[in-house]
Design a protein that fits this description.
This protein is mainly alpha-helical. 61% of the residues lie in helices and 7% in strands. Helix 10 packs antiparallel against helix 11. The radius of gyration is 24 Å and the shape is globular.
Length: 382
């Protein structure tokens, strides 16, 4: 396993380059990049077809930087400098525990003040270059794909908060025992929490920019499937704990690699399992028994599902139908993998189920209902 990017580089090239990046975080970032690409392509395609339309906005040009803008930029610069300079001065400590440094109160005050002044001055000079004696309002055209930068930022913020919230609900007992650690940790993220909260933020911003909710949902279906697949690569490579139950069964095919059937996740990032003989350092544990490598199963299946959704998008005419199909496929995929995946279970009225199984069931039912609704009302919704 590759808990950090440094481990990955050492495996590929045999070089020991200490970098403060964990593998899971890098693939989360790549998942957003993949989603950004797919969303943008769909927004452009739907605009070309006349389904989506650019909007006109009035903006003011020629204004000087306001005091509020200078203070805001200064605060942002201070935070960046406070942490960045401290991390550079204490680089080895930062490499060994980047999360601990970032989430602590430790920092460099002089670095913070320098960057605060730099950011405020930069904003002042940029506004000063274009200032007018009398600021004026001009009309600009905003195409649907041009709001993607705004969408991705808010999706990331609310997606992260939602993922943390749902994860703490799922592991409530552990949250009660270690609330601060779980709240400040970058690990422990639930996909469906991110999907629900991040998706809500996207719909609100899209509606403010003239895009109807059903059209925005259709835009997001293929992209979210692709982003999920890319994110799961990070889960597998880092060994973040999202693996399956113990698999003691022999391989069904001799040609099948061991890591695709039963895997112990050596050097996993969460430190689960037993010590690896001869290993020294921070990530030196592996599972006592091989488990189903469910993250890689999801990568394979979701890439195939993305390819399917991408291939049928030109044939989908009813608004809402694409997202309905996505909901059904996503729900079935996740429900099936939950059967062999380690997870916390709820016990209600004699039934035992995981949070993901419950949400998956709702997704399938909701997807069917949305698909039927879209097909019945395609003329009115277009």
């Amino acid at each position: 396993m590759f808990p950090t990017v440094s481990h990955f580089l050492e495996y590929l090239f045999g070089i020991n380059l200490p970098l403060p990046f964990n593998t899971f975080g890098v693939f989360v970032a790549l998942a957003f990049v993949a989603g950004y690409w797919a969303f943008t392509q769909e927004l452009k395609r739907k605009e070309a077809l006349g389904i989506l339309h650019p909007i006109k906005k009035m903006i003011t040009i020629g204004k000087r930087a306001t005091t509020t803008e200078l203070i805001t930029n200064g605060i942002f610069g201070f935070v960046i400098g406070y942490k960045l300079v401290y991390a550079l001065v204490n680089y080895q400590m930062f490499v060994s525990d980047a999360q601990g440094i970032l989430m602590s109160a430790k920092g460099n005050v002089l670095g913070g003040l320098f960057f605060a002044g730099l950011f405020a001055y930069w904003d002042y000079k940029e506004k000063d270059k274009n200032k007018l004696d009398k600021p004026k309002e001009v009309q600009v055209t905003v195409h649907p794909y041009q709001i993607m930068s705004n969408l991705i930022v808010w999706a990331a913020i609310w997606g992260f908060l939602g993922a943390k919230f749902f994860d703490n609900l799922e592991y409530w007992d552990d949250f009660v025992q270690h609330p601060i650690e779980r709240l400040l940790s970058f690990s422990g993220l639930t996909f469906y929490g991110g999907l629900i909260c991040g998706g809500a933020a996207v719909l609100i911003i899209a509606k403010r920019n003239g895009i109807k909710p059903l059209h925005m949902l259709d835009v997001g279906g293929p992209g979210m499937m692709l982003a999920y697949a890319v994110g799961r690569i990070g889960c597998h490579l880092s060994g973040d704990g999202d693996w399956g139950i113990v698999n003691p069964n022999p391989k069904p095919f001799t040609w099948l690699p061991d890591w695709l059937w039963s895997y112990k996740y050596p050097n996993n990032v969460v430190g689960e399992g037993i010590p690896i003989p001869g290993c020294t350092g921070k990530f030196c544990n592996e599972l006592a028994q091989g488990v189903y490598p469910t993250p890689i199963y999801e990568v394979i299946v979701c890439l195939l599902l993305f390819a399917f959704l991408w291939s049928i998008r030109d044939n989908i005419k009813a608004p809402g139908l694409m997202f309905g199909i996505y909901m059904i496929l996503n729900g079935i995929e996740r429900f099936c993998v939950e059967l062999i995946r380690v997870n916390s279970k709820y016990h209600v009225f004699g039934l035992s189920f995981t949070q993901a199984e419950m949400i998956s069931l709702f997704l399938v039912i909701g997807g069917i209902a949305l698909s039927v609704y879209a097909l019945r009302n395609k003329n009115e919704l277009a």
